[in-house]
Structures are given as structure tokens and as C-alpha cells.
């Protein structure tokens, strides 16, 4: 089996990965639930997106403040009342390791999610609960393991409800629709070929989903991608759309739409597209499917992942390796 088919199988296997992640998280003893003033999730790249997804999921149904930490230094807001979660699939992400050690000095409650590595060893030495997920995957392809481990651990610690039914719905929806979405992804990828994808979120539920699209297009398809959010777009970016001139005929706008999208935001999207109609080549409207917020998020996550693999296929590039990231790590290791 080639790398193309391997990555495609990993994307299509997301529902099964979620089921396995639920089982894995059930085995971990997190200690007694307690109240926290905020949740901080530290992670980079394909590991860090899980924190952003939780932040977006909580936007409409949880009062917990959620901060994402994508840096070496943790926010000053991290205190002894904070729940700090360090996520590094490899366990060797230097920014996350640095943040983990800083969090320990703040005396906050800490949880680690990893496949092992330095983070796994450091957490065990410190007596920090560790959710150990299966290794051997590209971090971006372990999204189901990492996100669900985070979400289930938050449920056990009393931060949120269990999302048991929502996860079950998401699993069922993806299993039922993945073949249909693959066909749709091939159409979308065809439209994106040799174009600049500009992905807009129209609901706070989908902000992290748009970021997931960008990261997957970057790493799998090896293309640039720009993201922004509505209605903020109307207060700045609308002026610049289509400039420099070469962008106008080489930009595909992808709008991510959910039933939670505010009515006047949809009005703004329509007006903006009309006002800037000479600033892009084509507009693609993609709507979520499913009932629960979680299932709706996953519907566009899987579609975006499939689009990235299919665009890689059309471009004749291997979706698995990330040579430039590997070279950056090699150089950073030298000091």
C-alpha cells in the first residue's frame, strides 16, 4: 500500500479511532474532580488543534474559559486553580515540553496526552496522569485519539459532560457518510487545484475546523491556505480581497456554514462575496451535517481531511512526509 492510500485509510478510519480513544481514556485514573477557573491546552500543530476544537465546542454550551498555548511560554493567567493539559503526540515537541515544565512550577493541575517520548516520561516521574495513545502515526492523523482523549478526560474531571451521545452520533455519521464525502472531496479538490484556498468560518463552532483545513492542506497537499472568520472579515479583509491582482483569478473561497451561523453573518457573507466578486475565481459553500455540535464539527473535519488527501493526489505529491518540518527539527536540534 502506498503513502497516498495509507493517509486516505487513516482519514477514513477516524470513526474507529474515536471509538478506540474512548476505551483508552476510560482506563486512566484522573483523581477526584474539582473546580478550575480555566483550562489551558498546550500543543503544536496536529496535537494543538485539539485544544482549539474544545474551545470552539465550549463556546456555546460551557462557561469554562479555554486558552490555547502554542508557544514555549505559558500565559500569566495559569495559576494553581488552572487545569493545564499538555498534548504532544510524539512526546518530544520542545515548545510543549517547555510549557509543561513551566506549568509544574505554577502548581496547577496537569494532564498529559501523548504516545510516549519525553513528555510521557516526565509526566510519569512527576505523578501526572498520562493518557497514552497508540504511536506510529503522523500527529495530524492521530486527531481522533488526541481530541477524544482530551474531551473524555475533561468530562471525568468535571469540566464538562461526557459527550457520550454526541460522540456516538459523530461516529455513526462519519461511518455512514464517508464514501459520499470522499466523492464530494474529489470535486472540491478539483476546484482547488492550482488555486489558493481561502477558507472562511462563519460560526465560532467552526473556527478551529477552518484551521484544521488550513493545516491539512499545508501538510498533506503541500499548498498554502489562508483562513479568516466572519463577521470579523467584513471589518478589514474585505478591502484587500483580490489584491495583488494575480490573486483574483487564482483564489477559491470556501465558506464553512453551520446552523449556528448568525443570520446577519450569512447576510454579510453574501454581500461581501458580491462586493468582491472580481477578487476571487469561485465560491464553494460547505455546510455541516448532523444534529449535535460535535457531530457537525466532525462532518467538516473529515471532509477537509479528505479534500487535502485528494488534492495531494491531483498534485502528484505524497501526503505522508513533511520534509521541511523534519529539516527544521534537525536544525533546531543543533541549537
TrEMBL record:
CDD domains: SIS_PGI_PMI_1, SIS_PGI_PMI_2
Keywords: Isomerase
InterPro entries, per the entry: Glu6P/Mann6P_isomerase_C (IPR019490), SIS_dom (IPR001347), SIS_dom_sf (IPR046348), SIS_PGI/PMI_1 (IPR035484)
SIS domain boundaries: 24-173
UniProt GO MF annotations: carbohydrate derivative binding; glucose-6-phosphate isomerase activity; mannose-6-phosphate isomerase activity
Pfam families linked to this entry: bact-PGI_C (PF10432), SIS (PF01380)
Gene Ontology BP term (one): carbohydrate derivative metabolic process
Family membership: Belongs to the PGI/PMI family.
Protein name: Bifunctional phosphoglucose/phosphomannose isomerase
Source organism (scientific name): candidate division WOR-3 bacterium JGI_Cruoil_03_51_56
